[in-house]
Amino acid sequence: xxxxxxxxxxxxxxxxxxxxxxxxxxxxVGAWADYLWFSEVKxxxxxxxxxxxxxxxxxxxxxxxxxxxxxxxxxxxxxxPLLRPHSAEQHALDRYRLFLLPHMTGWILLVxxxxxxxxxxxxxxxxxxxxxxxxxxxxxxxxxxxxxxxxFYVFEYPFWRYLLGVAFTAVVFALLGSLALHYxxxxxxxxxxxxxxxxAARAHLTSLVAVFVLLKAAAYFLDRRGLLLDKFPTQDLYxxxxxxxxxxxxxxxxxxxxxxxxxxxxIVFSNAFMRNLIWPGLALGLLALSxxxxxxxxxxxxxxxxxxxxxxxxxxxxxxxxxxxxxDAYGLKGVKVDPYKADNTDPPKSLVDGTDATVNNIRxxxxxxxxxxxxxxxxxxxxxxFNPKLDIDRYTINGKTQDYIVGVREIRxxxxxxxxxxxxxxxxxxxxGFVAAPASQVVCSGQPFYVSGFLSQETKPEDKPGEKCSSxxxxxxxxxxxxxxxxxxxxxxxxxxxxxxGDRNSEFDRPTxxxxxxxxxxxxxYDGSGGVAVNTFWRRLLFASYFRETNFLLSSVLNDHxxxxxxxxxxTRVRNIAPFLTLDSDAYPAVVDGKILWIIDGYTTSATxxxxxxxxxxxxxxxxxxxxxxxxxxxxxxxxxxNSVKATVDAYTGEVTxxxxxDNDPVLKTWNKAFGGKLVKxxxxxxxxxxxxxxxxxxxxxxxxxxxxxxHVTSPDGFFSGQDFWxxxxxxxxxTADQPxxxxxxxxxxxxxxxxxxxxAMVPRKRGNLAAIMSASxxxxxxxxxVLELPANTAIQGPNQTHGTMTSIPDxxxxxxxFSSQNSDVFYGNLLSLPVSDGMLYVEPIYLKAxxxxxxxxxxxxxxxxxxxxxxxxxxxxSGLEQLVKQVTGQVPVPxxxxxxxxxxxxxxxxNQPGTPEVQAAIANxxxxxxxxxxxxxxxxxxAYGKALKALQDAIGQYEAxxxxxxxxxxxxxxxxxxxxxxxxxxxxxxxxx
Length: 994
Description:
alpha+beta
């Protein structure tokens, strides 16, 4: 720089300033716009809290690391030898010394500044770790090994681990930089006579090595706690097992003390006694050898020779720790498995007499299928759109509570005919209307019965002779039906509040029917509280820069009353305000006190809960309902989960409100404390009307369902064997993905009344029959989880088996083939697995849609089945259930299929079978023998299979003798057909061994 002219220096300075301005300009503009947005939603403390924390962490860590580097480099420079021996090596280094020496201080500051800069940038990304660390809230629970409060692992352990990482980084860079300078200035030599290192260089470098070793000792002590987060060597469990506790834990402590001794030895022997590097080198070698032998070989030997031969006996206590911790961490501690025999295989009369609350509320409309129906029937204009996957909620209308398929009519900006800036951002600013239809009601050739959300008479389906296709009046009234904030808004901003209604620049509100059948458009001007004011030149300049749009400065659309709405997606609004929350993937709209609110479930999570099972969140929540969804992160490890927050976003004003749904969650308490204690409202602030629309969150249920497929087994021996593990069945409508859970209104066994709940079926691992039914709901605002387990020898088919059996009904197979060949697409709705009258009822709707036409799916057929034998293919649900009941009495024949699952022998039941006690006992023995036979066949136990086959033959002989004594004529060849006097007609044949 001394050789550059004054003008040149000025030019360089100007260029640097311009570069910095252009580099920082976008960040400054973005920060200003973000602050205005946070002020609009009334959460400025989030913006300022995060920003100040990140700035302080950048400054403190950047300065700390930079000072360590600069101090050590300066020390290496100041302690350089004044006289350097003559050697070829030193002569080769002279050119570098001559280059650095004139500005040595500047070079030191530059290197230290760069390393400090990157350290500060890295540190500011760990602002969440610091906030949790500095606001830690006790759990009131301790880990089973060290008896330390769990808050240490969840809030403090990650930050301590990060601090160690920063310290290691600083020491390593300081050591490498100091070594380089000592070598450059002759303090360390590779050639020449005399010592290879000066006393000052030796003291400096050995001190840095000693500090590194001491940090390693601290890391070993911290690693002892980290063992409770490791994975078991041979089981898919997390935590410290036998080897970790009995071998690796003492090894870590031994290595920590060895490290301390080695650090002391390096300092003392290198500088006080030997004054060479032989003993420090030996000490470091001893540490490395100890780490391999004590920390590697010994634990491996214990695992191989002590644990592996008798793993269950050695690991049983630690299995129990992992089971208990996992159930507690995921909110499953109080979940019990209740038996459900499902031994009634005859369809009861309650299927048709209207006395069963579950049957009365069977859902026929599938929200994943009818989204296109809503769009086609309720669209009116091509720029309106409903979410492809609609939502389910419940409403009480005319005194009846039932579930409804709901959606909101949003703007689809890419379908505007004139997609210019003014139309896109100033005229078409919002959608309109909340549309709902009962989930259990199908009218007018398979379409929903709409009860709300009509734009005009044109949006009502035309009634058919003798049948109403929609409600006469809006049964769910809304005070502000305009949708300014919704899931389809994307990153499109809107300029609102421009002028009076009716003026040329007003906002398009909705189309309405005009005289003579023509269309007239109604306009309005926004008068809500949402949006950021654009009422000054500087604001307009700001947003012109922020959106890179000069129309903010040039257009006459804006005036003193204008406001700009941005960040209009409800999920993004909540995520910005509460970035520490993991949000449920399915936000849903609800009408609460006349307002359309988006309700979003927020989860507090952690990945450092000791002994708890660790999962990848994005993988755990995937099933057929999330197909095609792009996740923002490739992996998100979680081993603690609470649905702590219920968030609402007003579709008209954009107002965001966070409610503490779980007041006892320490993680939520910590975050609330970090942001001043007023980030979330207490649970008591949730109004009764809003609480009525809270539903058990779907993503949480998916995670809990997957975990309970294994962790319903609570004993170590049962968990070790894995014989009772379950799995999620594949979706019958999409065999490449898991079946999603589904919301229904039902009264399941053990429940006092019908309730809105989320349910799912489970099957045994690698088998297809039904294993259990899970359900979750809110009872008086409290989460309730229920598991109904079927007997291990159940003959009840699982969802995929039942789907295969029902679609093999001759009439169904014939018609479905015809539909496909007649240019129609066939869609299968949710296959519902419903425990009804001590048996299992399956219901699966079938939708048809003409190909290559502007039409929509219509529900045309329904498949129903009860037990392993009775099934029907009908035009509607009532007809199908009626067929099932009539099949029992023989009024309607039981359809015979070519599905091998259905043709397996079904145990004869003793219900409705009069006869002598001997006949009934024989039938019961045959039931048991056939069940044992199937269980043995499925498990591959040939010894048990032979015993069960012998028992079946004995039971058949007993049945023949009993019927003969009762005056009946037994049928030959292992098939018993009692006469009418006996009243039973079972057909028994042994299953094939294949």
